[in-house]
Amino acid sequence: MKFNSKLTFLAILVVSIILNLSTVKAQNVYIRTNKAEIEIGEEFSLIIDLSNTAVSAFDFNIFFDTEILEYKTGPENTNVVNNKIITTWYDETGGKTPKNNCELVKYTFKAKKTGETFISTYGEIYDTKGLIESIDEAESIKIKENVTTEERARDNTNVTPNDSKLKELKINVEGISPEFSPDITQYYFVTQELDRLNITAIPENENAKVTITGNNDFKQGNNEINIEVKSQDNTSTTNYKINVTKTDNIENANSYLENLAIEYYDLTPEFNKDIYDYKIEVTNITEKLNILAIPENINSKVNIIGGDNLQYGNNKIEITVTAPDGITVKKYNINAYKRTEEEQKKVEEEQKENAEKLTQILQQNNEENIKVANKEIEKNNRKNILIGIIIIAIIGGIILGIWHNKKKNRKQ
User: Fold this and answer.
1) Rounded to two decimals, what is the model's pTM?
2) Could you tell me if residue 372 is inside a domain?
3) What is the distance between the alpha carbons of residues 149 and 246, in angstroms, rounded to a whole number?
């Protein structure tokens, strides 16, 4: 019966593939490695994850460079021939127990020598209706020399079981904004023709679980990619988001600010259109901020929430820029800290002390400059007197020589 059920399922699968080839759509299947940096002799994993779809069968071919990498382990239903790894699987229950939202397969490799190489993945995944997605991707692998124990300890100083942040986030093309930082969770990307993004997301704690959804099958308009990082001990979760706008008119999707300023105050850090979080500190009597926010595209709409009726402590100001397409949005945030009366008094006292110290320094510098100038004048005077004496001596010698010559001529 088991043998017949297998044949029946395979027959249904083949027929379904033929009938559904014209309706193949990309799903959330993506490839990642579990380490950003790999050393000689170190093992690492190539993982194929599955999200938002159910798989009843799959077939993968993995190609790798045997001079640089050594294959170690993989799923039970795997064969290895030279530099090619072949993995096949199908649901023996005929699709009743598919794989869904899980780690589909994991391959373990060992680094043999330094260099940069690729692991190429070709394959297909199916559900009970037929082919879901064809895969053709290459993952870049960089291998470096072994680091010392001290260096490794220094790199892992802040890694804890409840760490749910990323150490590295990158996509396979340029254009993501802002530049990645573990503490920044909102990112933006605009494209005209891409239907998916290959994402590398490496957690600070290599045992944390990373789940990526929404990076395939982009529609016209706004698309959201979510990268969920769940800590090793399952006590903490951080969600990173990439807001992807797919559009035929890039300029029409421009939602950047050209300038952002606040009257009487300087932003920290200095304004840059690719930086979305700022802070300022204001006096205890400041009630309202005069905010200047100018978009790059004059037809973009700017909406400012906050900045008036300021309370003591932190005040959140959100500047939303909506592009002319009405879809693409960027948010710039300012944290305005309003000092209390005691804090303001302390700041003013510090400013007064600093001003007095600066005045003393300037006075000391001025006195030192005067002393240096007087010494220089004195030195120049001595020099001039010495030059004068030398000139007088020379002139006297010349006159004395002339007098001797005249006296000698008279005697002759």
Assistant:
1) 0.57
2) no
3) 46
